[in-house]
Fold this protein.
Amino acid sequence: MQISYVTAPSFTRPNDTTAYQDADLVANSTTAGEVVPLKFIIPWKRSCIIRGASIRKSDGADITGALFTLHLYRNAPTVTNGDNGALATDYAEKIGTIVVGQQVAYADDAYGISFSGNYYVDANNNDRAVYGLIEAKGAYQGLALETFTATLIVEQD
């Protein structure tokens, strides 16, 4: 058994402070066609189990309502709304969701982690990728140009 922490490239949310509501998408663009899903590259070309995930955000000053769910997909999902719109996608072979929960504030950022995964993934596809979207769970006041980084906790099968 081997555990790896697989981090997708970070993204910066738009330059606004519009509050998120429950089930809103947290993304890099307010335009649906410009939203880039998170892309996690599994380190092995074989099956694995996603055991959990973490989400780090660059604003540690205000974590009120900073609750998030990470939605995972086998293929890159097509979203029908941009940042701060209701999360709506095509099916894209959804793997599952991980509720990351309340963020903990640190001096310069905030961090939340969950071990509520246990999703089997066959990473034998050509790019070994798993895709993700972040959903706000409740009212959350985002910071303009706030950066989000998501990491999967993956166990080799």
Remarks:
- The chain has a mean pLDDT of 87.
- The first strand starts at residue 3 and ends at 7.
- The CA atoms of residues 65 and 140 lie 5 Å apart.
